[in-house]
UniProtKB/TrEMBL annotation:
Substrate binds at R97, R103, N136, R167. NAD(+) binds at G16, A17, V18, G19, Q20, I21, G22, D47, N110, V134, A135, N136. This is Malate dehydrogenase. Gene3D superfamilies: Lactate dehydrogenase/glycoside hydrolase, family 4, C-terminal, NAD(P)-binding Rossmann-like Domain. It comes from Sesamum alatum. The keyword NAD applies. It is an enzyme of class 1 (oxidoreductase). Pfam families: Ldh_1_C, Ldh_1_N. Residues 161-329 form the Lactate/malate dehydrogenase C-terminal domain.
């Protein structure tokens, strides 16, 4: 690209950059997987003091990889320097759960980080900074961040349920033996936890004969209502059991998908799942960070309206909302 039309670099913060997800994520960002192949980036990496030397090692590797889009690297253990002027903040820093734990078991360690980092983001990030919280419990960390950074527009704070969404696409593609990119419009409702509700009532597959309903093609309602749902709800735990570590490459890749669709827009007729602040749509309590189907245009997400919700779905959507309200009070009791 001639310099005259080259885009100005976008500053992307990754917290917890030394960790598993961070290490997978920063090269993806530097290769354009998050913001596109013609968008230069400056990557800000934050980690904690004990990881400072390793952080410097990751910086060296980013330089060594000679990424054409990478216009600078800030590697720091100082939250203010990390947040300074960032346009996108991907909050991965925190502690992952281990085998046998629920995501809310990491609550007390992680929510206090999000309370502290909220004010730094509020004060030092670019005014229109878009925030994605990945660290668990993701919805509740995002809620804490939103409540302790009241000057950041509510619409700019989101959490990652795209991994669950992608997992649902993957399971349907395996079951029907179709390509994953031909499956669309699954929905993850609610919490990024074992109460989430993966819903395929509106999902479709592109075939040579046009769009077909996933429900009709699967033809086994029992599987869709039982094994399919629990597979997605438990996928994080299943990966931890297999790897002895929580998911990393899929989490990093889904974080790129989340930001890319948010910034660049969702394809026509396609929605994705994002954890966002509820506006009361579908009877979900306003202000709760809840995963909804959304479309994105010009850097803004909107909740898909008017989907028919049957009794089975209603019950599951309410159960995951209830868990989020309980998590919220647990988070506040940890912070006090
Ligand atoms: P990890 O332990 O490998 O890395 C976490 C990093 O965060 C470490 O380098 C640690 O030093 C750093 N860190 C801790 N406190 C920090 C702070 N205050 N500021 C900055 N950095 C800090 O963990 P991981 O496997 O990369 O997972 C990171 C988080 O993401 C975990 O909470 C995990 O449960 C969560 N996760 C979420 C999803 C999702 O879909 N939402 C998917 C996978 C993992
Ligand atoms: C995942 O879904 O893989 C992550 O949230 C990690 C976990 O604790 O399950």
């Amino acid at each position: 690209i001639p310099p005259s039309i080259a885009k100005a670099p976008v500053r992307v913060l990754v917290t917890g950059a030394v960790g598993q997800i961070g290490y997978a994520l920063v090269p993806m960002i530097a290769r354009g997987a998050m913001l596109g192949p013609d968008q230069p980036v400056i990557i800000h990496m934050l980690d904690i003091e004990p990881a400072a030397e390793a952080l410097n090692g990751v910086k060296m590797e980013l330089i060594d990889a000679a990424f054409p889009l990478l216009k600078g690297v800030v590697a720091t253990t100082d939250i203010v320097e990390a947040c300074n002027g960032v346009n996108i903040a991907v909050m991965v820093g925190g502690f992952p759960r281990k085998e046998g734990m629920e995501r809310k078991d990491v609550m007390s360690r992680n929510v206090s980080i999000y309370k502290a980092q909220a004010s730094a983001l509020e004060q030092y990030a670019a005014q229109d900074c878009k925030v994605l919280v990945v660290a668990n419990p993701a919805n509740t960390n995002a809620l804490v961040l939103k409540e302790f950074a009241p000057s950041i527009p509510e619409k700019n704070i989101t959490c990652l349920t795209r991994l669950d969404h992608n997992r649902a696409l993957g399971q349907i593609s395996e079951r029907l033996n179709v390509h994953v990119s031909d499956v669309k419009n699954v929905i993850i409702w609610g919490n990024h936890s074992s109460t989430q509700y993966p819903d395929v009532n509106h999902a479709t597959v592109s075939t040579s004969a046009g769009q077909k309903s996933v429900k009709e093609l699967v033809g086994d309602d029992k599987w869709l209502k039982t094994e399919f749902i629990t597979t997605i709800q438990q996928r994080g735990a299943t990966i931890i059991k297999a790897r002895k570590l929580s998911s990393a490459l899929s989490a990093a890749s889904s974080a790129c998908d989340h930001i890319r669709d948010w910034v660049i827009g969702t394809p026509k007729g396609t929605w994705v799942s994002m954890g966002v602040s509820s506006d009361g749509s579908y009877g979900i309590p306003p202000g709760l960070m809840y995963s909804f189907p959304v479309t994105c245009e010009k850097g803004e997400w909107s909740i898909v309206q008017g989907l028919k919700i049957d009794e089975f779905s209603r019950e599951k959507m309410d159960a995951t909302a209830k868990e989020l309200m309980e998590e919220k009070s647990l988070a506040y009791s940890c912070l006090n």
